[in-house]
């Protein structure tokens, strides 16, 4: 019997996805099920699924499974940057201390940062991110903006500091993340964050704005994080299709 290799599995699953056997939005069989189906090891299956992920056909989420994202592979460059799994791991690696919660009306300056209309109402949850081994040097300060309708999620955030707010919204309100848009800027630490971040005002920092979009591409959560220089590294991987 011919040995099944991971390129063979990739080719077969790609064809199955393209013909609609595994529709967009559905979950593929588990690694164990695919291993039995193809008569090969889980290592081979895992390598095949990683290849499908790099092609943009599927996404993989711990404790959920492998979800079909597209029927055809993406062309040109594909950027794999800060997947939701990566954000979850970041949350687990740091202690989150909620500093304050307030409902605000966005002014024009903040609206430009958030990419939303001025005068809109948001619930702002501000917190420090602290490495467990060094509580004197915070990794960053995060302001999370969500629709006021999700106010009941706040106590859960405070009680579960390692859980992403977006996960809570998805589980309790059924609003699922379809896309996360991420923008990175070099900034100076504003004066009001200098003391909590334990740095000098105006010192260099990295600002990351993440906009969480639902299936209709409507933003329901926006986070703005300021990372002092030398305390956080953002890594990305750019893949290029060979065809």
Automatic annotation (TrEMBL):
One of its GO terms (biological process) is negative regulation of DNA-templated transcription. GO terms for molecular function: DNA binding; DNA-binding transcription factor activity. Residues 3-71 form the HTH gntR-type domain. The keyword Ribonucleoprotein does not apply. Keywords: DNA-binding, Transcription, Transcription regulation. This is GntR family transcriptional regulator. The lineage of its organism: Bacteria, Pseudomonadati, Pseudomonadota, Betaproteobacteria, Burkholderiales. The gene is frlR_1.
């Amino acid at each position: 019997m011919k040995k099944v290799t991971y390129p063979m599995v990739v080719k077969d699953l790609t064809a199955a996805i393209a013909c609609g056997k595994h529709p967009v939005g559905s979950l593929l069989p588990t690694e164990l099920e695919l291993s039995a189906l193809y008569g090969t090891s889980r290592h081979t299956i895992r390598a095949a699924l990683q290849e499908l992920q790099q092609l943009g056909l599927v996404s993989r989420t711990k404790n959920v499974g492998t979800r079909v994202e597209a029927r055809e592979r993406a062309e040109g460059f594909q950027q794999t940057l800060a997947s939701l799994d990566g954000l979850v791991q970041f949350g687990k690696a740091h202690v989150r201390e909620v500093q304050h919660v307030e409902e605000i009306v966005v002014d024009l300056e903040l609206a430009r940062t958030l990419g939303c209309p001025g005068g809109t109402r948001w619930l702002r949850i501000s917190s420090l991110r602290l490495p467990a081994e060094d509580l004197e040097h915070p990794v960053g300060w995060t302001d999370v903006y969500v629709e006021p309708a999700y106010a009941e999620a706040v106590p859960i955030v405070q009680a579960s500091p390692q859980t992403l707010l977006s996960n809570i919204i998805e589980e309790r309100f059924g609003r699922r993340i379809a896309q996360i848009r991420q923008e990175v800027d070099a900034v100076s630490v504003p004066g009001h964050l200098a003391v909590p971040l334990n740095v000098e005002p105006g010192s260099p920092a990295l600002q990351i704005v993440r906009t969480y979009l639902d299936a209709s591409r409507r933003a329901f959560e926006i986070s703005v994080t300021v990372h002092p220089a030398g305390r956080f590294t953002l890594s990305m991987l750019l893949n290029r299709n060979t065809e």
